[in-house]
Design a protein that fits this description.
Mean pLDDT: 85
Order of helices and strands: HHHHHHHHHH
Largest sheet: none
Low-confidence stretches: 9-18, 319-328
Oligomer: single chain
Helix content: over 70%
Distance between the termini: 52 Å
Number of strands: 0
Number of helices: 10
Shape: elongated
Strand content: under 5%
Length: about 325
């Protein structure tokens, strides 16, 4: 039974005819869902390999969350003790202040440790970006050999991108905290605070275009970043929407943690999702969209570059028919 299910997944239902030109994807939406169906098992295998690079970051994030949860539990216990008359309100206020300071220290420590952890993921992300780019436009890619070759050829840009990505949350937290305290005395300090947040968000959103550009075009890093920021701003609503969509598992885990006593299970579920398919699925979604953006803004300006790879094109069929007629003559 299981074998029949797998055969149906890979080859379709028995008795069904071959693809016709009407069945071929004619829109980006159709191409995305068809490639996702075909490459789903491949995305799982790719993710299991890629997740190894993320294990240090997962450990650091999990450690920080557990330390925060333990401190929150201690504070809740102290509140119960005050209600029972075992400690005074002044003692509870002191514990609350210590808890707030401890949370700040945990956040700072976690963000510092994440800088080298995220820098480590950068080179391997180039390999995932190459494979998901090919799969998203219905082209072949070997999971292992193409992954390794792409990492070897682009590790410098990947490492730099990963380092900046790891540094960005730390800088955002420091700037928001510092200017937030200054804004309590002068409201004008909210301006640099907002600027820091905008810069950080733009960088995180532009990653959807940075890695695909690294593995697709021969550009220096300054042009890669410049093009990515321009495309991020030019397609801001959709880019931000896809980035928020990628954070949906985090939002679900956060809601479960805040409104139920099952934070540990929520974190385990979140970790399992990213270890099994979360990273590669997010990259595949981003690659599908970045391919479309490149076809609109970059590829038409490069001579000889095919636009709309993976999509049915009536002009290509006419060219094939003309070539066949000439060969027959």
């Amino acid at each position: 039974m299981f074998g029949k299910m797998m055969n149906r997944y890979y080859y379709g239902k028995s008795g069904k005819g071959d693809y016709t030109k009407e069945d071929l994807p004619q829109t980006r939406w159709q191409l995305f869902w068809e490639m996702l169906r075909v490459r789903l098992s491949g995305l799982v295998r790719l993710n299991l390999m890629y997740a190894v690079a993320w294990l240090p970051a997962i450990f650091v994030i999990g450690r920080g969350l557990l330390m925060w949860y333990a401190g929150m539990g201690n504070l809740a216990e102290a509140q119960m003790q005050m209600e029972a008359g075992e400690i005074t309100a002044e003692a509870l206020a002191g514990l609350t202040q210590s808890y707030n300071q401890g949370v700040s220290a945990v956040i700072m420590q976690t963000l510092l440790l994440l800088v080298p952890c995220l820098a480590l993921t950068g080179p391997f992300t180039t390999g995932v970006a190459y494979i998901t780019r090919n799969w998203a436009r219905d082209e072949h890619a070997f999971i292992w050999s193409d992954f390794i070759d792409t990492v070897k050829g682009n590790w410098k840009y990947g490492l730099l991108t990963g380092f900046i990505t790891g540094l960005m949350p730390l800088l955002m937290y420091v700037c928001v905290t510092f200017y937030g305290e200054m804004a309590s005395t002068n409201v004008l300090f909210m301006i640099p605070q907002v600027i820091c947040i905008v810069i950080g968000v733009l960088w995180l959103c532009s990653l959807m275009y940075v890695y695909p550009q690294i593995v697709t075009y021969k550009l220096n890093y300054r042009n890669v970043v410049r093009n990515s920021l321009i495309m991020t701003i030019g397609r801001l609503p959709m880019t931000v929407g896809l980035k928020l969509l990628s954070l949906l598992p985090w939002a679900i885990a956060a809601l479960i943690s805040l409104f139920t006593p099952y934070m540990q299970y929520a974190m385990l579920g979140l970790a399992a999702y990213y270890i099994v398919i979360g990273f590669s699925l997010s990259r595949f979604v981003g690659a599908s969209y970045s391919n479309a953006v490149f076809d609109r803004y970059i590829n038409p300006n490069i001579e000889g570059v095919q636009v709309g790879r993976g999509l049915y094109n009536a002009e290509d069929e006419e060219d094939d028919e003309d070539d066949g007629a000439q060969a027959g003559e």
